[in-house]
Structure prediction request, 439 residues.
Amino acid sequence: MTTAIPHLAGNFAPVADEITATDLPVTGAIPAELSGWYLRNGPNPHAAASAHWFLGDGMVHGIRVDNGRAVSYRNRWVRTSTFTDDAVRYREDGTKDYAAGVANTHVIRHAGHTLALVESSLPYELTPNLDTVGPYDFDGALRTNMTAHPKTCPTTGELHFFGYEVTNPPYLTYHRAAADGTLLLSRPIDVPAPTMHHDFHLTAEHVIFMDLPVVFDLPTAMRGGGMPFRWRDDYAARLGVLRRDDPHGEIRWFAIDPCYVFHALNAFDEPAAEGSARIVLYVMRYPELWRADGQVDLDATLWRWTIDLAAGVVAEEQIDDRAGEFPRIDDRLAGIDSRFGHVSTRGDAGALIRYDLHTGTSSAYEFGGGRVPEEASFVPADGRPGGDGYLVSYVYDPAADRSDLVILASNDLPAGPVATIALPRRVPHGFHGNWLADE
Ligand SMILES: [Fe+2]
Prediction:
């Protein structure tokens, strides 16, 4: 069935059912050192319709790779309470059911738990085979929504994240969990209005929030049928800096030009001379978002923000004019000066781009034939953070209406895939995922 609704058409359309396939055909050679799961989440409305691309029920597509073999592929809905029981977010008494949500945005692993995440509710835990265990609330300690973009500190193993709300203050709450999954702290952050916070930044010494002019809009929410946020010219864009060693301390706010950022590539504290500490942040920046409606009709490009903590100002520089999204690094360098960053592009020339942020150069692989990659996760190939590895991504071929999982060597993207795993059918366009290596 075809539809004229863009977020339900072409490869945005949901697949109708769950399948399992084993011993998948491979072109090239899967690197023998890769053993684990590649899991990626995305919207797949089970009623075959949703009010916005961002609002469909989560479906995780998983590939099991072991010892050079593509062992299996499976796709499973995340069976949240809204999926199984038509649970609603707001109860009749006005309180919120934090487990009611679509869990459609990301998959992470923390403290041995595999979690499907969406920013408007609690995570849901999954088994490795993608069966749903249930909502995950840090043993009852988490009392807000949880972002789909938490950050794991590679030094401490702590999980840093936040939750944002639209109905009542505090609109924003910062959380930190220990490596063993214990929720260590939750602290409210004062923002003037319920702004949409999709992602944030972690460095070795700081967390940085992006308070940007896309604000909850009650008339849009009352009309229903989409994302209830709109651009506001009268809301000042700011970055809020919190010291990690003083998590209940003051947030310092820094003005930036109006923009929206869904995704951070990485951030780090720059070694600096006495009295000139700076924080460098790389983001995929949109010049504006959702002024007239809820369509994403402008492109994001890679920008660098440099916060000068002594001078109290932010330098803003565009790094590239190519449109891109879904930025990823070697996550072992989260919050550290990662030399390389990877970005996906769609449109006429679907490609993966690798930026060398130290030299200002880049390399890329264009898939050709209208084929478009999804987000590419970085898979380490050696024990050295920042060393060589692989990019893995689902790639959709519109001519054949099917998808592959491709594996490229990160240090030689132009050579193209070292392995292409043929999937039994297409994987709809989705959001984020992770390579979960066997532990
Ligand atoms: Fe995201």
The chain has a mean pLDDT of 95. The longest strand covers residues 260-270. Residues 105, 148-149, 198, 262-263, 431-432 surround fe (ii) ion (CB under 6 Å).
